[in-house]
Amino acid sequence: MKHDIRRMQVRLHRNGLSQTAHDQGTFELYAGGLIVTGTNGRCVDVTAMVDYGGIPYLGTWNDVACG
Fold first, then answer.
1. pTM of the model
2. What is the pLDDT of residues 29-60, one digit of tens each?
3. Domain with 40 in it
4. pLDDT for the residue numbered 60
């Protein structure tokens, strides 16, 4: 039985900023790359969501990359 990924969303947040970088849409394999600059002395948090076969999966990773 094949399950199609209907939606993917990735958000990046650089500590010290209120804005987030994000990419979202309907994808099968890869949501695309995101670039965060100005990370010297700051950390990046990642939040990702995938809707797989109608079931949403959410993951959050804090301080993934620290410059």
1. 0.68
2. 665 677 777 778 888 888 888 887 788 899 99
3. 5-66
4. 93
Structurally, how many domains does the chain consist of?
1
Q: What is the DSSP letter of 18?
A: S
Residue 44 CA to residue 66 CA, distance in Å, equals: 6
Characterize 31-59 residue by residue with b for buried, 16 or more Cβ atoms within 10 angstroms of its Cβ, and e for exposed: beeeebeeeeeeebbbbebbeeeeeeeee
Q: Are 27 and 16 in contact (CB under 8 A)?
A: no
The pLDDT assigned to 25 comes to: 79
Q: How far is CA 34 from CA 22, 23, 28, 55, in A?
A: 7, 7, 17, 25
Is residue 25 within 8 Å of 6, Cβ to Cβ?
no
